[in-house]
Amino acid sequence: MNTTAELILESEAGTEKLGAALAHVVQAPATVFLEGTLGAGKTTLVRYWLRALGHSGAVKSPTYTLVEPYELDGVTLYHFDLYRLGDPEELEYMGMRDYFDSESLRLIEWAERGQGLLPEPDWLIRLVPEGSRRRITLQGPAAQAVANRMTEHASD
């Protein structure tokens, strides 16, 4: 059963804590849709999530490549950015179905651009900028556990 939780992040340190909480709670195989406007912090959240999973290299936005793979402790994480996708059918040409046949973790920015060809997400994370803050809505099987983890590990 999916639950919903809302958080307010006051700073980038809050985004880092959220990435760590998600890395602890969200387990592969899973599909996560990251929603938000340009500059909402989707790629920044993915960067902190990857760091919490042990990735020490650069994390670049896959805006032009559409997908960046990361191998972390026996789990493959795919970071997708579909912003520049012209038509959902392009996903067929890039072999999108193969990414969903594996035991991977799939983080997808701009998933609405692949509507009709992407499966339903296990998690939905919506980031809404509000001045210098971010309102985060989490929907997923353990959304409240992520929110609890954020509050247990010091306030933002």
Automatic annotation (TrEMBL):
Gene3D superfamilies for this protein: P-loop containing nucleotide triphosphate hydrolases
Keyword annotations of the record: ATP-binding, Cytoplasm, Magnesium, Metal-binding, Nucleotide-binding, tRNA processing
Molecular function (Gene Ontology), one example: ATP binding
GO biological process: tRNA threonylcarbamoyladenosine modification
Pfam families recorded: TsaE
GO cellular component: cytoplasm
InterPro entries: P-loop_NTPase (IPR027417), T6A_TsaE (IPR003442)
Superkingdom assignment: Bacteria
Main location: cytoplasm
Cellular compartment(s): Cytoplasm
Protein family membership: Belongs to the TsaE family.
Protein name per UniProt: tRNA threonylcarbamoyladenosine biosynthesis protein TsaE
Naturally occurring in which organism (per UniProt): Thermohahella caldifontis
Name of the gene this protein is made from: tsaE
